[in-house]
Write a structure and sequence with these properties.
Distance between the termini: 30 Å
Strand content: 15-25%
Helix content: 25-40%
Number of helices: 3
Radius of gyration: 16 Å
Strand order of the largest sheet: 1-2-3-4-5
Order of helices and strands: HEEEEEHH
Structural class: alpha+beta
Number of strands: 5
Largest sheet: 5 strands, antiparallel
Length: 160
Amino acid sequence: MILNPPGLGPGAAQQLPHWPYLQAVDDALTRRGIPPGSVRADRTYPPGGDTMYLVLVWDISRTTGPGGLRLRWEEDTGWSHALIGISPRIATEARPITALHRVFAAPDDVAEVAEHLVHHRPAAIGEFGAEWEQAAHVRAVIDRFRATVREPDGLWTGPD
């Protein structure tokens, strides 16, 4: 499990209110033996609207098939995937992962779908409707973050 946001220093998780979801998904992926090689958690900045997102990447050495895999999560649309070439900049167009019916899909469901994509590429896998049990709490923290990010004592502690 990724304990703290790398490179951001003490208190950095306050800048990433969706960090607990990444930790839960990473833990589920690790239990399945398919940890991603690269993980990014961030948000868009104005004028992008402070949308939280995650990017998980498996390069060609971690997948079965001719290339790698990129999963992306956004708080308003949920999970999508793209197949990547030898260079992560060479990728197919991102497509929604329609098997995951919730924006905050259960981490074990995300890991099951990811395992299938890592080993078998896109194909029918089934349907997953469970929502992560901490989704409501993280949504509330994201809302609080967004409401206070630019206030003097808000969650945001970095430069504007």
